[in-house]
Amino acid sequence: MSEMHALVRRLYPLCRSITGSGLRRTLEIIGESIPLEISEVPTGTQVLDWTIPKEWNIRDAYIKDSSGTRIVDFAASNLHVVGYSVPVSATMTLEELRPHLHTLPGRPGLVPYRTSYYAETWGFCLSEETLAGMGPGPYEVRIDSTLADGHLTYGEHVIPGRSAEEVLVSCHVCHPSLANDNLAGVAVATRLARLLAREERHYTYRFLFAPGTIGSIAWLARNRDRAGRIRHGIVLACAGDRGPITYKRSRRGDAEIDRVLAHVLRDRPHTLVDFSPYGYDERQYCSPGFDLPVGCLTRTPYAGYPEYHTSADDPDFVTEEAMLDTLDTCVRAFEVLERNRTYVNLSPYGEPQLGRRGLYESLGGRSDTKQAQMAMLWVLNQSDGAHSLLDISERSGLPFDVVADAAQALLVAGLVKE
Amino acid sequence: MSEMHALVRRLYPLCRSITGSGLRRTLEIIGESIPLEISEVPTGTQVLDWTIPKEWNIRDAYIKDSSGTRIVDFAASNLHVVGYSVPVSATMTLEELRPHLHTLPGRPGLVPYRTSYYAETWGFCLSEETLAGMGPGPYEVRIDSTLADGHLTYGEHVIPGRSAEEVLVSCHVCHPSLANDNLAGVAVATRLARLLAREERHYTYRFLFAPGTIGSIAWLARNRDRAGRIRHGIVLACAGDRGPITYKRSRRGDAEIDRVLAHVLRDRPHTLVDFSPYGYDERQYCSPGFDLPVGCLTRTPYAGYPEYHTSADDPDFVTEEAMLDTLDTCVRAFEVLERNRTYVNLSPYGEPQLGRRGLYESLGGRSDTKQAQMAMLWVLNQSDGAHSLLDISERSGLPFDVVADAAQALLVAGLVKE
Amino acid sequence: MSEMHALVRRLYPLCRSITGSGLRRTLEIIGESIPLEISEVPTGTQVLDWTIPKEWNIRDAYIKDSSGTRIVDFAASNLHVVGYSVPVSATMTLEELRPHLHTLPGRPGLVPYRTSYYAETWGFCLSEETLAGMGPGPYEVRIDSTLADGHLTYGEHVIPGRSAEEVLVSCHVCHPSLANDNLAGVAVATRLARLLAREERHYTYRFLFAPGTIGSIAWLARNRDRAGRIRHGIVLACAGDRGPITYKRSRRGDAEIDRVLAHVLRDRPHTLVDFSPYGYDERQYCSPGFDLPVGCLTRTPYAGYPEYHTSADDPDFVTEEAMLDTLDTCVRAFEVLERNRTYVNLSPYGEPQLGRRGLYESLGGRSDTKQAQMAMLWVLNQSDGAHSLLDISERSGLPFDVVADAAQALLVAGLVKE
């Protein structure tokens, strides 16, 4: 019943980063639900304009006061250590330690989330309240981490369809103990993959679980040809908070996926925003060289909620109900994508006589029958090869499903062809 | 003075259908005002996806009670018989008869209009009040009709213009005693044809009086080449009720006829609606194979008034004033079509000196003179071969006639050419 | 401090017309600030559809009453004589004189401005109050003018740029003692030319001071090839009244100059109006044969203020502050034009790693740094050769300068090329 929320809770304690064992363990757990093909990209590999960094692993970290009490303890929350901190083992006064301490002065009870992937440094994140209680020291400071040649890891799950054309669902999996950003996205994607596998599909669906930025860049670098097969895609993030859905359009702005999301969201509270080159991995998919039709589906977007990138983004912040709603949006969008074809009317001169084919109820009356008949007339009228069923649904104001059912009936009757 | 209304009253009692003698007699009466070329298409002829049905004729029909009184009588109103009813002669109880009786429960005093062209059946239409007064029977039930091989009839009136390009005015003539739908349209079209004939025209005008759907389909099937000459067209229907004008755009949506109607209607109450593949014969003209620039001009559109397809749509429901207003709209639209040319400025570098050609009043002052001069400057500035006079009128905000007069003055002065 | 206003006051008393010594003297005075190349076009020269008229010069003019008092005196204001009046020397009663007298009955204290360039006549302009005080006469009436073969004069100032492509600034200089129309425009243009010369420019800037209509037509006739080099242009007029700026778009409507002006004006009170073929010399530049991207920049447009074309349009009507604001608008618009380039991202697959190039501050924080980084991401994302920096500024909502600075930084880093 709360399958997605259970996955969020299980993944939450792991210390993920853009490389390392926490990331690998996360992919293993996802792999229990949906088989993942794992890729390991060695440190130093050139990927597009970037280079795979060293692999980072951490076992323990703390700041101990003179009584031996851990004032700040990695074991309590992995947010306490700045991601990619180099090893430290020293005794320091507060004054010496202070430049390495990060707090949120405006929200004294919360621990911030910080990383420093590409500049070698170290640091601790703690609450302003903890900092306020700290005397002049000295303190025992220790970060038991390693930064060494290794690999960057990502995982893929593919559901083959009748067509080699792909729909991409991409989730970043590099954030440590943060629930909405992005364990909720991971949980929704995992559930979505299982739902989609239940029936035969037109499109091939590719789920990519990769560290943000460098992960999607690595995938793109190693799959340049495959990228060209992506016909539609979404980046799934912040999928579990209580806010309404936000869909950020692809760079193209009017890609089919953009129109489909607008269509399935139109009768519910939602926000549509134009593309901007900031956010999640749509930045990479929508770089001008690739310009893929990939948008970003979230509930409240990044930095749009006060819990963002703090210890308050914990499993209680996300709900199964919200994740189900995000899942439902994806399912409905993909249903439209699957059925959105463009037909050609084979009897385009005048209306074909529907009555003698049993497609026109002379008595009519029931409103769903009338809607179905209107949908047939619309499909016949617009099917000149230039209008998709989504176009027809939008122009006619009829629900997409009714239009698609009408097209199916006309296809069976031999009045239209694909 | 009320010439159109008189025609409505004269045609009203005839029992029209999509074939038969009532239809023929209607065309004869129209032909007294404007000569019609009559076409007879034999039963069984394949026309596009359809087949011409048997011809239906009816002489009498009634339901008599045991006292011999005609409870329901075709002679009182031809709406009482379901169109295309097969012959019946039987004695039946009310219970047996009931499935063949059609009423309007919500409007107990009115008789509905029903047909069954393509499913062989029979029936009577009556008021709910009449039905309520009927005892268990038995009743003598008789429909003296014939459904036999014959012809479908339609009539055309053509006003030749300087150009072989055509403007089509199409009216359905298949409804029996219903005044607004479509005797008012027939009356307006007939008067319009006489008005247009008074002076030489650029376009050739074709008036088509044909039964709905199957009639326009038959015409299109037999005039595929001619259809290609139709540059503009309107389907004229519901032309006499007291509501404001509604213009439904052609499938193209931005055809010249669509822009012209929007232009002539803009300063008066009206409604513009987008094309939909339901309504009158624009459905056929705008099928994707033909995709003709034909819109539909009505006052209140079909099904938009409570009298629609009932005995309340009688001659008192339509007014001469409303028909004159519909006529005026057509006349003004066709005036714009006639004058809407695209010119080329022969002196396009800088403004030509209008003063030395007597085209620029140095003193100015009168506002119509100023408007005329502004119109000349606009025509000169925009006449690069890509902007019609209607474009110029819309861009400048000047009345079309003023712009067209300015173009004429510039043409005479040799400053523009067509 | 009030350099522009001083120029207005100095030029104000001169009796300018479309030809003659007042026009020449005006160009001489402008030439003291910015060197002008003077062109003299002989009477009778065919220029496009027009012919250069005779040159008009005037020395004196008056209406004297019987006591010898000058009731109306050219020496007091050159507006008193209808421009291009032929010589007169006569004694006339008021009744005889009356058809030659022009007043503004609605504004009894003001003297109107009138001309009659192309119809040979003569006349005086005076206030309604003066007229009311005039007895039956007789009056000594004298206009000491000459209308003879001569020349039409215009002046040009060119600031060469790296490119032969030109930006045109055009001012009419044919109005006598009228300050806003157009001495303020002349003063702003003169100051603008000096400002632009201070640094190297991409574009070549051409300033044209010419009589209205016939002057720009003469220039166009003699510079057909050069006209083709004009990439952007503005007609500068009514540049000194206290109203907000109005920009009238070029005929094209979406020329770069049109978008640039809309951009620099967007955060301040202003009005944008579409092109119309009436106003100032944009009428000639935007005639369909040339169709140059030239708009018209004014404060309150012609005929939009009650002082227009009357003696109330005097130096007190215009302010240095308003002229400085007009100047600032021009400067900012030309800055955008100068910097508005289209770049190509040389690393278009994924985002380039800005951090290792020192272009990405890992700590961030300062809002101008964040804006600069967003601008770099936008420039990289949109620089596919189809989007200019102005496009990017408008799509991103970032200030143009920030976007242009970001592009410059990326250019230096070798990440984009022009």
SSE topology sketch:
3 copies of one chain form a homotrimer.
Chain A: H1 3-11, H2 21-33, E1 37-42, E2 46-47, E3 50-51, E4 55-64, E5 70-73, E6 88-92, H3 94-97, E7 101-102, E8 124-125, H4 128-132, E9 139-148, E10 151-159, E11 166-172, H5 179-196, E12 204-210, H6 214-222, H7 224-227, E13 230-236, E14 245-248, H8 256-265, E15 270-273, H9 282-285, E16 294-298, H10 320-339, E17 342-345, H11 367-382, E18 384-388, H12 389-396, H13 400-412, E19 416-417
Parallel strand pairs in A: 7-8, 11-12, 11-13, 13-16, 14-15
Antiparallel strand pairs in A: 1-10, 2-3, 4-5, 4-9, 6-9, 10-12, 14-16, 17-18, 17-19
Helix pairs in contact in A: 1-5, 5-10, 8-10, 11-12, 11-13, 12-13
Considering the chains and any ligands shown, give keywords for the structure.
eight-stranded mixed sheet; homotrimer; 418 residues; Arc Repressor Mutant, subunit A; four-stranded antiparallel sheet; Aminopeptidase; Glucose Oxidase, domain 1; alpha/beta; 3 domains; 23% strand
Describe it for me?
3 copies of one chain form a homotrimer. In chain A, the strands form 5 sheets. In chain A, strands 1-10-12-11-13-16-14-15 form an 8-stranded mixed β-sheet, sandwiched between helices. In chain A, strands 5-4-9-6 form a 4-stranded antiparallel β-sheet. The first copy, chain A, is 32% helix and 23% strand. Chain A has 13 helices and 19 strands. Chain A folds into 3 domains: 3-53 and 151-338, Aminopeptidase (3-Layer(aba) Sandwich), CATH 3.40.630.10; 58-148, Domain of unknown function DUF2172 (Glucose Oxidase, domain 1, 3-Layer(bba) Sandwich); 342-417, Winged helix-like DNA-binding domain superfamily/Winged helix DNA-binding domain (Arc Repressor Mutant, subunit A, Orthogonal Bundle). The first copy, chain A, has helices spanning 3-11, 21-33, 94-97, 128-132, 179-196, 214-222, 224-227, 256-265, 282-285, 320-339, 367-382, 389-396, 400-412, and strands spanning 37-42, 46-47, 50-51, 55-64, 70-73, 88-92, 101-102, 124-125, 139-148, 151-159, 166-172, 204-210, 230-236, 245-248, 270-273, 294-298, 342-345, 384-388, 416-417. By secondary structure, chain A is an alpha/beta fold. Chains in contact: A-B, A-C, B-C.
